[in-house]
Design a protein that fits this description.
14 helices, O-antigen/teichoic acid export membrane protein, globular, mainly alpha, transmembrane helix, about 425 residues, Poly_Biosynth_Transport
């Protein structure tokens, strides 16, 4: 890819993520203005919890589908193999993943999910719609990313963001105070984004019908890892709300502040999508020097971006939370600094992950997120004060993940090469 085209691709992805990120923050801002004060604190917390749960349950599993599909497509293309069997196998895995998630949500509703969503059936239905849409759009993005068709990839971001943003603004203009309406407005974006690129997903016909080996097992490893990464990224406000029935206003302020500190994660997301196909092809052809060089470059880029995010949280965060999200009071700069630093650590861990995936070390990725999640959950649940416990957990959990993944990359890069065309997971740690 020549430099001019690379810049154009980066601009499209950045703009698409800008629209999608703005839609997410607009959703939180809009519901913060519509549902404010002690009387509406329960509805506001339920909608913010829906926002967090969509990011945990939907992308948490289906981002794994995207990564595994992108890896398999990139590897097949590097070896000159047909892509349609990979796409078909990925579609079947998407349907199985959707069915499993629906079962989990149905079981969780009477146990804990109903309380978090205030027992509102409309929000429950919106969550199911969001899961279905996520499955479709992440499958499409995996195919497009693996073929390095990033302009079409960016189109899904534009559409998803616009469909989430515009209905919320319309509802705000009509001053409608129905939580389920806002939930559905947020939920339908992913499904329409997938439909927008259906014509671009046609692949050449082939006589090969045998599905690629190892995708299911690899997906299980990645799904576990990415679900846990989304849990670390989004669960804290949900637990704070659950643990603070007597102080819902403070919980709502923390939830809005938490979302604000996640802005750099939205700006960073295209890095994974662009990085994975490149490092996969380098790994498939044995070019580990290129793998190392790309990883160093991206780590430096992400560190700089994350540092700017921390500075932005400290300088502008208190004002933005109060003015844009209409919080009941200004959060402290210390809270925003801790959340911003935690976001930086998450970004570093997530940028190391594609290199391990390309090197067929999916199990190492999962082990890292399991270790970090255990530490995160223990601190989050056992801490005596909910918000302080959430802040501490949000920092130490990702630090554990980053340490495990970095050690895994160093070991993988110094291990003997398995050669081009190796199975994605067999016998690998």
């Amino acid at each position: 890819m020549n430099p001019a085209r690379r810049i154009g691709t980066a601009a499209h992805l950045a703009a698409g993520l800008g629209v999608l990120g703005a839609a997410g923050y607009a959703f939180v801002a809009v519901v913060g203005h519509v549902f404010h004060g002690p009387v509406d604190a329960g509805a506001l917390n339920a909608l913010i919890s829906l926002y967090m749960l969509v990011n945990i349950i939907g992308p948490g599993v289906f981002a794994a589908l995207e990564q595994e599909t992108s890896r398999a497509v990139s590897a097949a293309a590097a070896r000159g193999e047909p892509l349609r069997p990979v796409a078909r196998r990925a579609g079947v895995l998407a349907l199985w993943s959707f069915a499993a998630l629906v079962l989990v949500v149905l079981v969780a509703w009477p146990l804990v999910l109903g309380r978090v969503l205030e027992w509102r059936p409309g929000l429950f239905a919106a969550l199911l719609v969001a899961i279905a849409g996520s499955g479709a759009v992440y499958w499409a993005r995996g195919l497009l990313g693996g073929q390095q068709r990033f302009r079409e990839y960016a189109r899904t971001l534009y559409v998803e963001g616009a469909v989430r943003l515009l209905p919320c603004l319309v509802l705000l203009a009509f001053a409608l105070e129905v939580p389920s309406a806002y939930g559905f407005a947020f939920a339908i974006g992913s499904a329409l984004a997938a439909l927008s690129v259906v014509p671009a997903l046609r692949l050449p016909a082939t006589d090969v019908t045998t599905p690629p080996d190892g995708m299911g097992r690899s997906l299980l490893y990645l799904a576990g890892a990415i679900a846990l990464s989304q849990l670390l990224a989004n669960l804290a406000p949900v637990v704070v709300t659950y643990r603070s029935p007597g102080d819902l206003v403070a919980a709502a302020v923390f939830g809005s502040t938490f979302v604000l500190a996640r802005v750099p994660l939205f700006l960073f997301a295209p890095v994974q999508a662009v990085l994975l196909p490149h490092v996969t092809r380098a790994a498939a052809t044995g070019r580990r020097d290129e793998l190392t060089r790309r990883l160093r470059q991206v780590l430096a880029l992400v560190t700089g971006l994350g540092a700017l995010g921390v500075a932005g949280c400290v300088v502008l965060g208190p004002w933005a939370a109060e003015r844009l999200f209409n919080t009941a009071y200004r959060p402290s700069t210390a809270t925003l600094a801790l959340l911003g630093t935690a976001t930086l650590v998450m970004m570093l861990a997530l940028v190391v992950q594609p290199t391990l995936v390309a090197l067929s070390r999916q199990r190492t990725v999962t082990i890292g997120w399991i270790a970090g999640s255990i530490v995160f959950l223990v601190v989050l649940v056992m801490g005596p004060e909910p918000i302080a416990a959430a802040l501490t957990a949000q920092l130490v959990g990702p630090l554990v993940v980053l340490a495990v993944l970095l050690v895994g990359v160093l070991r993988a890069l110094h291990a003997p090469s398995a050669g081009t065309g190796a199975s994605p997971v067999k016998g690998r740690r």
